[in-house]
Amino acid sequence: MSDRPCLVFACAHLCDERLFAAQVEALGAAFDCRVLVFREHDSLAGMAESLLASAPERFTLIGLSLGGYVAFEVMRRARPRASSAWPSSTRPPPATRRHVAPVALPTSPRSRRAASRR
To answer: Does residue 118 sit within a domain?
Structure first.
């Protein structure tokens, strides 16, 4: 087990460990760098489970393209374990009611009047 902070790199589709070789070389002295490739999985759920099984208790997650989608799935499943996530060349899935913050209703008479004029 390393006392250095862990960076987990999640590769894009049809890419291998070479995708993040320059980052691992540049950051390897200061960070425990782990590069994951998802050759054996056919679902985001399976990829996320594999990543979580091979990652330490706390880590920073970096994902490119497909790896970014895996990052979103990891954050959905185990948010406390990932100190941060950096998905790149990807976009988040649509928000559901569970993801949307409640809207605060105006409470003062003045703000209620302003809101009713909209």
So the answer is: no
* pLDDT tens, residue by residue, 57-78: 999 999 999 999 999 999 999 9
Does the pTM exceed 0.85?
Answer: no
Residue type (1 letter), 30: A
Task: Determine the straight-line distance between the first and last CA of the chain, rounded to whole angstroms.
Answer: 58
Residue 110 lies in a domain: no
- The parent domain of residue 27 ranges over 6-93
Nearest to 87 by CA among 66, 108, 102: 66
Residues 6+ apart with CB under 8 A from 51: 8, 10, 36, 61, 70, 74
pLDDT surpassing 50 at residue 20: yes
Residue carrying the six token digits 């993801």: 99
On whether residue 88 sits in a domain, the answer given is yes
Is the predicted pLDDT of residue 90 greater than 90, yes or no? no
